[in-house]
Amino acid sequence: MKILSNGHLWKHSEFIENKNFSFDKNKILNSLSAKDIDEAYSSISNWQGYSPTPLIELNKLSEELNLNKIFYKDESKRFDLKSFKALGGAYAVEKVSKDNKNIIVSTATAGNHGRSVAWGARRLGLGCKIFISEFVSDARGKAMTDLGADVIKVKGNYEKSLIECIKQSTENNWQIVQDVAWKDYIIVPKYTMAGYTVMMKEIVDQIDQNKISHIILQAGVGGMAGAMISGIARYLQNVPEIIIVEPDSAACVMESIKTGKIEKIDIKRESLMGGMSCGEVSLVPWEILKNAVKYCISLPDDDIAKTMKLLGNGNFSTKKIIAGENSAPGVISLIAS
Ligand SMILES: Cc1ncc(COP(=O)(O)O)c(C=O)c1O
What is the mean pLDDT of residues 184-192? Predict the structure, then answer.
């Protein structure tokens, strides 16, 4: 807990160190290969409208915390989707389609990944079927319909929507583009992660890579974090300390790191950090995270809205930042730990 000069008490719930820590570049690049990473960058950097997203210095926050420099990767500028997710699902759609314009892609989603798949399908002129659970809001569904996808609402939770997606896709020969891996479904989620590594390539082009001492990564199913760690293994000479941040109601990476094996969380309350409210770490990222992560931190929802406001008002940086509920936790964990 720490008090910033405006008198607010910042809170974290739990902070742990990984007793199985060891950063093995070769092992990481066995999970997501340098070839996959390089191919993703050369494809995506040639997409129409591509430009690297800004790396913004939180100059006011670093002064207050007495830290040398703090950077914030601003993904609100990522294509017209305004999310890093555009890199993953849409790239997987491109890889799966293999230039075949006649396929239909499908996915089950709580929202963000589905938007990326729908956006990627529209980019390539492909049909797209999105399965959502009855708990996904109409607004989220509409965001995907607006991108040209057929949105199918399924009774029950996310798992039910995935089962229905697999059933209908098998019957109709649609290509499933899921970001979560399971035993016999590994390649497509890897493409999604390869797409996310573009962020790390941009970062090494934006700052002196040897000066990165710590990197804080938010995790839901761990795909983004696993991808960024692969990017570190691919592009950085030095290895920064890697910290994973999660909602305390869905700290599935933290609980798995504690025991050294995948632990499933029974989510009792959905976090405000909606995209991170996931009960189980995905298989491919887990193989990377289990050793490469140095620390895990979990947060309550309490400071999310406030932090988004402070970022938006320019309290942490000269530049004002439009942050979502899932990007604020990185900043909170730095202040609160
Ligand atoms: C900003 C942000 N960070 C992290 C995540 C979690 O990503 P993953 O499920 O790949 O761990 C999300 C999910 O929506 C997100 O929006």
Answer: 95
